[in-house]
Amino acid sequence: MTLAITNTLTGNKEPFKPLGDPVTMYVCGMTPKDRPHLGHAFMFVHMDVIRRYLEYRGYTVRHIQNFTDIDDKIIDRARAADRDPLDWSREYTEAYFEVMDRLHVRRAHEYPLVTANIPGIIQDVQELIDGGHAYPTSTGVYFDAATFEDYGALSGRTEEDGAAGARIAVDDEKRDPRDWALWKLDNESSVTWDSPWGRGRPGWHIECSTMIRRTLGEQIDIHGGGADLMFPHHENELAQSEAATGCQPFVSYWVHTGLVLTDGEKMAHSLGNFTTTADVLTDVPPDVLRLYLLSVHYRSTLQFSLSAIEQTRTGYERLLAVTRARGGNAAGDGAELESEASAARQAFEAAMDDDFNAPRAIGALFEFGRAINRLAPGCSAADVEKAQGTLTSLLGVLGIELHEPDAASDDATPFIDLLVNLRQQLREAKQWELADNIRDDLGALDVVIEDKPDGTVWRRG
Question: Which CATH class is domain 325-397?
Fold first, then answer.
């Protein structure tokens, strides 16, 4: 079966035909203004599975994921806390890695930052002005939506108030309500840059266009992100990227994940109704949480439920129990078990080839686990171990590992406390690299550090 992906732009499930080698994949990363919540975890885990499955299928993937390390909301929160905005965003960037590493989300090949791409952003804005697609005002530079004929094709929304497309107030000098800010003049903030139009900082949407262009080129295979980014962010990205380069399509496959809801409402920092991923991981093992997040298709909505997570824990324990099965007949014929393994792999691949249908793939693995338990007494130990290896290998494609619970020794506690305290002192001295080295070294020893509002704590992973 050929891998097919639902392309948001067309609304169709399309055969995957990459532009070349490697497959280019860009995922819109966090605006690190707070700790990652379960909505972030849902999106990044599913994007990780897409990358993993492409690699399983033999593709080489070049995966880029940005951090919007400066924007109005970061500046506002940092100002309210009497903090430097870049220190603020750096802290929550670290918080992202702390939880996503635990969830086995593979690290992107590169994490471009907005603040490291200002010259390229200025160059791209000027290119749009020169091409007649953007114009300066007394408050900044705007993209002229009327100059891009296909505006609205991605989201189907063409008459929205342009204020939704820019993180600033409506500007009377805008030619069209749909126009959005490419550059925002600002003489008051501590985080601004010189430009041909005055001192300021980039608008939200141009940042990703520039970072994609500088890291992956003018056309890419896959652009991922949450459904809430479809409009205005991705709609505006598409317009300004194609207007600047003339290359169409800018993205071959737009891939959007569904939202995580709590009490029927989107979980979001801006709404204050979020549950942080770190808080859930206090009581839920990472592989159980990952299995829970993959329990619905990536394009579906997930209603956050602690009881559903507990049901997932029971399911995880059933899978774990399969690894304890032992062969009961040294001379047994393992042909049927081998046939079940082959059927499970085929069912797994058929599900994943069908728009990365992880829930269906997981269902096939549960069926295979039941077959192993049923057939193990009549098979040799070697045959059972081989089947168990197939099960764990396919779970690994989904980033799920099966771990027996263990009681870790606390003999090293005083030394870990010492290192954690040293890391905190380094952070206070803004020695970020050294502090990160301590975190990473402890992480390699399965010690997880969590920075909470009331201080830093650690625990064994």
Answer: mainly alpha
For the chain, give every domain's residue range: 4-266, 325-397, 413-460
Per-residue pLDDT of the chain (461 residues; tens, 9 = 90+): 799 999 999 999 999 999 999 999 999 999 999 999 999 999 999 999 999 999 999 999 999 999 999 999 999 999 999 999 999 999 999 999 999 999 999 999 999 999 999 999 999 999 999 999 999 999 999 999 999 999 999 999 865 544 444 444 457 889 999 999 999 999 888 899 999 999 999 999 999 999 999 999 999 999 999 999 999 999 999 999 999 999 999 999 999 999 999 877 787 777 777 889 999 999 999 999 999 999 999 999 999 988 899 999 999 999 999 999 998 888 888 999 999 999 999 999 999 999 999 999 999 999 999 999 999 999 999 999 999 999 999 999 999 999 887 544 445 666 787 788 888 888 888 888 888 888 888 887 778 887 766 567 777 66
134-139: Cβ within 8 A, 24+ apart: 134/182, 135/175, 136/197, 137/171, 137/173, 137/174, 138/173, 138/185, 139/168, 139/171, 139/173, 139/184, 139/185
Q: What is the DSSP letter of 110?
A: B
Query: What letter represents residue 215's amino acid?
Result: T
Question: Which tokens is 231 given?
Answer: 């409009």
Domain 4-266 has CATH 3.40.50.620: yes
pTM, two decimal places: 0.86
